[in-house]
Design goal:
CATH class of the largest domain: Mainly Beta
Family: Belongs to the universal ribosomal protein uS17 family.
Helix content: 25-40%
Order of helices and strands: EEEEEHH
Pfam family, one: Ribosomal_S17
Radius of gyration: 23 Å
GO biological process, one term: translation
Shape: extended
Strand order of the largest sheet: 1-2-3-5-4
InterPro entries: NA-bd_OB-fold, Ribosomal_uS17
Number of strands: 5
Protein name: Nucleic acid-binding protein
Distance between the termini: 67 Å
Largest sheet: 5 strands, mixed, barrel
Structural class: alpha+beta
Strand content: 25-35%
Oligomer: single chain
């Protein structure tokens, strides 16, 4: 049997050295009702460089047993939330610098306002609660 490559999301990091918990989701058709059911399974994954962060999307591959429950190792990081955040922050800093250069002056209040507006889109927005009605 060849190597199994599974794709999942990192759900737990930092509890053990060089180990991350990866949750893999899959769809199964129920035998009687023929409805699709989403099943998940958690795998302990060997991360030798401790480079995984929470909510990263990764590919893991089976390997020889590393410990009692660890049978998979990190194969590929597909999407890293921390790297995306850093890249977005660098892009905003470049935009801020170009706007300051274009305006001809280093107006810190204007550039900080532009940076705040750009960052506010990345923060979690709270949905307003509907007004309570009394009957």
């Amino acid at each position: 049997m060849g190597p199994m490559v599974l794709r999942g999301t990192v759900t737990k990091v930092g509890a053990m050295q060089k180990t991350a918990t990866v949750t893999v989701w899959r769809w199964v058709v129920h035998r009687k009702t023929q409805k699709r059911i989403e099943l998940s399974k958690k795998y302990l994954t060997h991360d030798p460089e401790n480079k995984l962060h929470l909510e990263d999307e990764v590919e893991i591959i089976n390997c020889r047993p590393i410990s009692a429950r660890k049978r998979f190792t990190l194969h590929n990081v597909i999407r890293s939330t921390v790297l995306e955040r850093e890249a977005r922050h660098e892009q905003l800093e470049r935009e801020k610098a170009s706007l300051a250069k274009a305006s001809g002056s280093d107006d810190s209040s204007q550039s900080s306002r532009i940076l705040k507006d750009a960052l506010s889109g990345w923060q979690k927005e709270e949905t307003p609660r509907p007004a309570e009605t009394t009957s």
